[in-house]
Specification:
It holds the Pfam family Peptidase_S8. The protein is of the alpha/beta class. The protein is 20% helix and 27% strand. α3 runs parallel beside α10 and α4 runs parallel beside α5.
Amino acid sequence: MIDTGINPSHPSFTNNGTFRRLSHFKGRCEEGYGFPLSACNGKIVGAQLFARAAIAAGDFNATRDYASPLDSDGHGSHTASIAVGNFRTPVLSKGYNYGNASGMAPGARLAIYKALFPFGGYMSDVVAAIDKAVEDGVDIISMSIGPSSVPPGPSSFLSILEIELLFATKAGVSVIQAVGNSGPDPNSILSFSPWITSVAASGTDRMYKNSIILGNGRVLSGIGISKPTAERQIATKADVSSPNASANCLDTESLIPSLARGKLIICEHIPHSMYGQTTISTIFESIGRIGAAGVIITSEENLLDSDAGAESSMTLPVPGIVLGSVADSQELRDYYNSNTLRSTTGEVIRFVAVGSILDGRRATYTEKGPIVALYSSRGPDVNNNLMEAADVLKPSLMAPGSAIWGAWSPNSQSVPESIGEDFTMLSGTSMAAPHVTGIAALIKQKHPDWSPAAITSAMMTTADRTDHFGNPILAQTPDGLRTANPFDYGAGAINAARAMNPGLIFDIQFENYVQFLYTVPRVDKGSVRQAVGVGNCPTALMRWCSDLNTPSVTIANLVGSRRVMRRVRSVSTETEIYVALVKEPAGIAVRVTPRVIRIGPNESRGFSIKLEAREVTNAFTFGTVVLRGNKKHTVRIPLAVFASSAL
């Protein structure tokens, strides 16, 4: 894990007696503040700090950031627990048991390389951490981090980070990286190269909904993970504040404690742009400190329909609810106004409106999804910072990333509502990537001789393109939901069970990646030689970047037609016959030759995919080649094609 360190005392990372020493791992345990040598307990097999650049730049503060592998932020502990946290670890937060958690690969060991901090980090520290991880003998590198922008230079594939990860792949190390949280804008991917497994984020069907029952019996729905209240009087913030105070709760100092105490306070909707340094959590805490029974925040958007809002995954410090719709917000106002006695000057004589907030800590399961998260960065991938589209499909695939419970560092100040807690719920592609990391570990355990490319292939070709009801996966946008495409989710939503037995794999060697680099448009051979240290051009060159043997086909500039070659190897235990089925991208004719492939155990077969533009699309269109075997294996190859000319 290349992240912000780890909380070694967390129950997700204790040695339950099943972890023995690994013979091939040579990493060391670095002792330091809050991190004794005993922290490397067999589950955690190595832990080191990389902060030379951060120290030299003056950003590192040993008191705040800890000069040891101890996690001062919480992010590293959270991602590590998602990947390999111990099985059935009770999730306790604010005195409530939310159930049991498990990492994807609870039997895997952890090697910690702390190169990130609450303020971020420096590329040279990250590269040093990667270099040391490979030297130490890790099997998988998990990176819920990335550059802040497309790197400068001749190609995004030739940055120091991408080349460092290429050499990690050459050493047999799988690299899993989050794509970034800059969605839904196109070209927002920050994980570029075909040797990296780049992970997008989805929501899950688990939701934490809450409700308030009004005195008239009406039930209003919303979100907010909090404990319940008894029936209490309701008051607007303006009616229990000093004169001329605003109706929202950004200025809680205007509240009059004697009036607010014991009541449910209505706070009018606050646009996220107005929060500044104030958070929902601090508002709730401030109102709770003066003795209010709870908080109700109105809404100007339909949160329950869009599944939007940071509040949906927030454990609130006092009872509270964010109403889920504009209609419910107005119904609350109408009920309050008709049940509040006022003087002729408008002052409240008596608060008559009452309500009770229910328990919002119990999860409900909608069976919807997965749905591509709004924030998840989108393709297409780019060759350079001129934003020229690349012949590489990104993201690679998708995993759960929204409202994910994970381990935390109690001393972290990063999430105010989780200070002092051992668990918190976060959202982001940072949470999606370690799901894939853990599944890659399971595949590596079952197939120790598989290359990183083979492991990625297994996960991509078996991914789901439909939701739990068999309908196409949807993607969140500012305007609502739309049908998702491979630039949203890559090959699809990861399916761990099928990835263990993919039937066929697409393999790639280091030399093939070098050939790919020599073929990237606008890149001169000298830049490639300088980056990878190859003295001469490969004896055989690719004609197109799309000829790299990936389990997908992306053509960013199709002129007329192109024949793409692919080669598969059987990892099945018996001979199987595959038939190629095609769903053509709009405006593109696709032919697979041969259409029928008979392949025995450990045998390899080649086939071609010819793509011909029937019309100029001037936009990417999407399709699929499906290799359907007679022994229940199905291999899906996503197609993404931009036809610029039909000549």
